[in-house]
Each structure stands twice: as C-alpha cells, then as structure tokens.
Amino acid sequence: MASAITVENLSKRYNIGQAPRDTMIREALVGLLKRGRKPAEAEAFWALKNVSFTVGQGEVVGIIGRNGAGKSTLLKVLSRIIYPTSGTVEVEGRVTSLLEVGTGFHEELTGRENIYLNGSILGMKKREINEKIDAIVDFAGVPRFIDTRIKFYSSGMRLRLGFAVAAHLDTEVLMVDEVLAVGDADFQKKCLRKMETLQSAGRTVLFVSHNLLAVEHLCPRVIWIDSGQVRCDGDAGDVMEAYMTSFNPVQQESAGLMNLDQRKGTGQVQFRGIEFLDTDGQPQTVTRTGDRLTIRLFYHAQETVSQPEFGIGLWAGLGTLVAALGTSTTGFEIPELPAGDGYLDLTIDALNLVEGRYLISMWTTGPNHYSSVDHCYDVIEHAAELNIEASDFYKSGKGVHRAYGIVVLPCEWRLAAEYSNEESSHFLARAPE
Amino acid sequence: MKRKSFSEIWKYRELLFFLAWRDVKIRYRQTALGAAWAVIQPLFTMLVFTLLFGKITKVPSDGIPYPIFAYSALLLWTYFSVTLGGATSSLVGNADLIRKVYFPRTALPASAILANLLDLLIAAVFLFLLMGYYRIRPSWGLLFLPLLILQVVIFAFGGGLILAALNVKYRDIKHALPFVMQLWMFLTPIIYPISVIPQRFRMFMALNPLAGIVETARACLFPSRHVDWHLLSVSIAMTLITSMIGMAYFRRAERDFGDII
Predict the structure, then answer these.
(1) Which terminus of chain B is more exposed, N or C, with fewer CB under 10 A?
(2) Hey, CA dihedral for A192, A194, A199, A200, is it positive or negative?
(3) Is residue A343 part of a domain?
(4) How many whole angstroms separate alpha carbon B161 and alpha carbon B245?
(5) Is the pLDDT score of A113 beyond 60?
C-alpha cells in the first residue's frame, strides 16, 4: 500500500518560562546587552518526541490521547501550521486540515461571499466553488439567507455554513480535529456520515478526537499519543482497550476520579473518590432522568481545618454549567473538619436532567477563598462522569430525549379554548368586559 | 526551496485575490461615502499643505501650481503609507487564519498591498482632473507612471514583509509605525521639491526610495521637469535590496508564526 502520510522522528520543543506573546523590543535589546550572561535557561518542554508512523493511502486513522498529550500539536505540525523542531513529515496528494469550521469567516460579508472566501482559504479553486456553490448552500440549509451578511446569522447557521464548505472539499488527505465536538447531535451525525462517505471513497483521513465512540466507529486503526510519544499504534479495539485500562491505576488510589493530573489547590484537604448511591445507599448502576441520587465524596484532610466548604459543579458537555451545588450556598455549614478520612453525601431529590453524559467538577476551599483557584484546598475539573439514561419522566409513554433540552421540569398542561358556540361558553371563566 | 515557494505563491494566487477582495469589500461596507474616502485623504492633506506651505510660507514648487505639485506626491505617498500600515498588521490581524490553516503567509501582506491599489486608481483619476484644471498637457512620460507604482508596490511589499514579521514578534511596531511614517513623510520631497535641499545632503535623501519615486513621478507628469537618473537608480537599488531582505527575513521568521502569533 502506498503511503499517504509519512512521519519520521518528529519532535517539537517549546521553551516554557518564556513569554512568547506580546513580546517587546525592549526585552530583546536587554537580551542583546546581556549576551554571554543569559538569564536562567528556559525549561524545555517536548510537546512531541520522536513520533514516527506511516498512514497508507485510503486508511482512516484515529488519534487519541489525554488533554495535553500532544494530539493537537501533532495535527498542527502535520498541517504545516507550526514547524517541527526536528524530524520530517511527508504528505502525498492534496491535503486539507480542518482545525475548525468556518475559518476566516467575516461578519461583514454575506453567506455567499464567505463561501468563496472560506473555500479559497481551504484551498478550493474559484471554478470549483462556482460548480459547488448550489450544493453547498443546499447542504447548509440557508438558501434564504445566503445573500445576508453573516453577522445576522445564528451561531448554528454559521456552523452549518462552515461545515457545508468543508464537506465539499475534494481532497485526498483530510485531517480533522474535534470539529465534531461542537454542534448538536443532528449536526454531529451529519458530520460522521460525511466522514463515512470520505472513507468509502478511498480518502485518507486522520481523525483527532476526544470522542472515543466516534473514533471507534470510524477508524479501524488508532494511534494513542501519550506525553508527546506514540504509546500504542494498531487495531482500534486493542488500542482503545489499552487506553481505557491506563486510567485504572489512578482509579484505585482515588476511586472514580479522573483528570487528577490537572488538579489544583493547596492540598490541605483532597478528594479521594466519588460514588453514586441510590435511595438504599447501594451503588447506583443506572441513573435515570428524575431519579433520586446521592453523590458521596470521599476526602482526606491532612490537618484539621475550620469552616471548609465543599461543592460540585454539574456540566453538560464541556461548556454548559447546569448547576453548582456548594455546601455554603445550599445552607450547609461545616464548623470544623477533623484531620483524617471521611465522606460527604450530597443527595439530589430529583435529578431533572435529560439523558446524556454529564461531567462533575469538584472543589473544596477554606472560608471565602473563592478569589483564586490556587488558594482552594483542592479543585478538580471534570473529575467524574455521570451517565443519565432516558426515562419516561412525564409518564406519557413517550420518553424524554436529548433533543428535548437539558432539563425536565415537573409540569402540567391546562387548556382554555375560546368556543364560538354559545352553549359551550360556560366552560370558560371569562373576565367581564 | 526558493523555486518551490514561488510556484506555491502562484498556486495560491486565487487566495491572494480573495483576501484582497475581502479587504476591499469590507473597507467601504457600511460607510456613507464609500470609495470617495480614497480621494478624501490625499485631497484634504493637499488642501492643508497648499494653504500652509504654498500660500502662507511660500515653499517653492519649481513653477508647478502648488496644489498639483503636492497632490502628485501625496497620491503615491498615501498609497505607500496606507499599504505599509495594512501589510504590517496583516499577519496579526489574521491571527486566527494563521493558527488554523496553512497557506503561504506572504499572501497576507501581499493582499494588503493589492487591496489598496484600487484606492490609488480612484485617487489618480482625481489627479488627472486637477491636471485638466491647471491645463497641464499630459506627456509621454505619463506612461512611466505605472512603472513607478510598481516600484512602490515592490518597496511596500519588501518593507511590509519585514514589518509584518517583526510585528508578530514585537507588538511595538504598531505603536512606532504611525509616528515613523509622519517623520518619513517630512523627509520625503512631498511638501518641497528636492531642489531646495543642498547638494551634499541629497545623497542621503536618495537612500529613501520614496524620494526618487516622488521626484520621478513629477518629472513624468510635468514636461518642464527632468528625471534625475542618479536619484532614480539609487531608489531602484534600495527598493530591490529592501525586498530581498524582506523575503529572506520573512522566510526565516515565518517558521515561528504558528507558535507565537
């Protein structure tokens, strides 16, 4: 099989401690004067280290790894946005990389004008766009607004327009980064379908994503990047399994908690685990919309602290905070927390959330220490995942799904119809006119 | 490597065109006066200069009516200064593109230069109206004007490449530029003819390519003046040197754009 992408000993070094943004000439001049007596050598951080792999033509390869493992850096190097410190990349054929949709859209231009601009930025020829413009407009579903400036578009329309252009790229090698992470479920499905067609058309696709389900669904081969290196490369099933089990050692020490490498705080009090319990205090295997749920937070206090506060944040996806439940805000005071281990139970009477995957962030802090994360005892973003299954919350036999929003609200309908028939008018309690 | 980068620019010529087209579209969208702004800027500068320098302080203009003497130079100067400013901010202003897509980065400063050509043409129409008003007969020299404009383009491109790349690294540039451009204008024979400068200083003035360009433009427009070939050749040499340094520096600097922009 001919190779489409060849990566050899690719490394990328960043110097941390230097301020690369908004640098000023003054510092450069000072640096010149002080030459020979350089200030403390900046610390080297290898975002990628000796990464090598080959992707054959027509292969669809997923790239997975934790946050900060180097996935995005790899994709950026492959798409020539940043230069490697050493090593080589060779890509055969016409390449398109999609790090976001709608790159270069301008508010003051119309939808049509933006299609041309965005298309040419992504490497399409004008003739090609002329041929495809009708299909693009159609795909985006915005024919009525195509000559309206996009500053009047909703964010959803903009996204669809951007994706419509991307979907009509005729490219031999496609690299995609997390584009699917945005947008609603329908849109994500559309994206996945499009990727499937690319796959069956024999295109080479490199797919970088957090969405393990999507990766598993699309990619027969997966490369797992860990700390800037290829940790595992091979059959999707094997790599996924290895990736999943890599979380386990952490879980034994701190049951059920994720993202511990990104925890912040002083550590005087630390979370040690989380458990979801049902009404009988038994571990809850399935949580449904509307269920009563107890979240048990295990902690360890190094020393006795007074008036600590605990709390969790419940997030839908990565961007929407559904609820923040803190001890102090909900009126629960802890005068003193003795040193040692213990747990706190937070019971939610009715979990009025529709099906889906929710993330739980947790924090603990001394009194009034909200100002800075670093002053808190312990803060872990997205420390746990809560999967909520659909239920027939409204008892209608119809069920409640993600398309219905995020929350379910206990409610009741009543009808007051205005009957023209006088005989029926007594059904209505009408205010005298 | 070098040949590859030129063929690549050719490959991306449509993008260059689209970026310039975007700049033109956006510049006058939602403005009441639209493209008239292209004339207003040099015109009003010319009016103020005529009043201050032509009428009050009586700066010599070698027998050419002062308004057209000033406007002919301001036409090219305005294009140069606006274009250089546009090219300088073109990379930082399109940071989102640089972070997300690959294309030859030179397309951004180049598009800024291309986009302003339209303004130059509009402002040039006004020059010909002025010439008609003062009954100045166009000579064959007029045909060389496009070549001078080409020289401004090449010089602005070279300088723009350097400043745009520097601006990515040192945001000081955007603070310094307006002030430097103001000084530069007074060091260029726009308000005054180069003939008022003592001979021994003219050598230094010649190092400013704009001096040669502006003086030659006047020689092309007004039959009474002659081309100073010495001045012009130094100007052309400086233009070529600047653009070569610009391209060499840009090629080296662009490797870091994705990381630091």
Answers:
(1) N
(2) positive
(3) yes
(4) 9
(5) yes
Nearest CA in chain B to A117: B18
SS3 string, B103-161, reads: CCCCHHHHHHHHHHHHHHHHHHHHHHHHHHHCCCCCCHHHHHHHHHHHHHHHHHHHHHH
Residues A224 and A262 grouped into a single domain: no
**Claim to verify: residue A281 and residue A371 sit in the same structural domain:** yes
Establish if A19 touches chain B: CB-CB under 8 angstroms: no
Tell me which chain A residue has its CA closest to the CA of residue B105: A81
In this complex, which of A79, A83, A117 lies closest to B22 when CB atoms are compared? A117
Q: Is the pLDDT of residue B121 over 60?
A: yes
- ipTM value for the complex: 0.85
Q: CB of A94 within 8 Å of any CB in chain B?
A: no
| Domains contained in chain A, number | 2
> Does residue A330 share a domain with residue A294?
yes
How confident is the model over A363-385, as pLDDT tens digits?
999 886 666 777 788 988 888 88
Which domain range does residue A298 map to? 254-392
Selecting from B99, B169, B255 the residue whose C-beta is nearest the C-beta of A83 gives B255
Q: Does A13 touch chain B (CB under 8 A)?
A: no
Q: Do A341 and A306 share a structural domain?
A: yes
- How much is the pLDDT for A42? 63
* Least trusted range by pLDDT, from A129-138, A222-231, A382-391: A382-391
For B61-94, write each residue's pLDDT tens digit: 888 899 999 999 999 999 999 999 999 999 999 9
Q: A263 and A365: one domain?
A: yes
- CATH number for A206: 3.40.50.300
| Shortest CA gap A90–chain B (Å) | 15
Assess whether pLDDT exceeds 50 at residue A278.
yes
- Whether A71 is in a domain gets the answer yes
Q: Is residue A164 part of a domain?
A: no
What SS3 string covers chain B? CHHHHHHHHHHCHHHHHHHHHHHHHHHCCCCCCHHHHHHHHHHHHHHHHHHHHHHHCCCCCCCCCHHHHHHHHHHHHHHHHHHHHHHHHHHHHCHHHHHHCCCCCCHHHHHHHHHHHHHHHHHHHHHHHHHHHCCCCCCHHHHHHHHHHHHHHHHHHHHHHHHHHHHHHCCHHHHHHHHHHHHHHHCCCCCCCHHHCCHHHHHHHHCCHHHHHHHHHHHHHCCCCCCCHHHHHHHHHHHHHHHHHHHHHHHHHHHHHHHHC
Give the full edge-to-edge strand order of the sheet including A60-64. Answer: A95-98, A173-177, A204-208, A60-64, A221-226, A229-235
User: Could you tell me if A307 and A350 lie in one domain?
Assistant: yes
Residue A357's domain is classified under what CATH number?
Answer: 2.70.50.60
| CB contacts, 8 Å: B19 with chain A | 117
C-alpha distance from B191 to closest chain A C-alpha (Å): 33
| pLDDT band for position A418 (cuts 50, 70, 90) | confident
Structural domain count of chain B: 1
Q: Looking at the structure, do residues A229 and A356 belong to the same domain, yes or no?
A: no
Q: Are residues A11 and A90 in the same domain?
A: yes
Give the amino acid at B78: T
Query: Which chain B residues are within 8 Å of A76, Cβ to Cβ?
Result: 258
Residue in A closest to B95 by C-alpha: A104
Given a cut of 60, whether residue A39 has pLDDT beyond it is no
Judged by CB atoms closer than 8 Å, whether chains meet at B102 and A97 is answered as yes
Question: What's the rounded mean pLDDT across residues A324-329?
Answer: 90
CB-nearest partner of B172 from A24, A81, A120: A24
pTM (two decimals): 0.71
Q: Which of A211, A246, A281 delimits the end of a domain?
A: A246
Q: Which domain holds residue B55?
A: 2-260
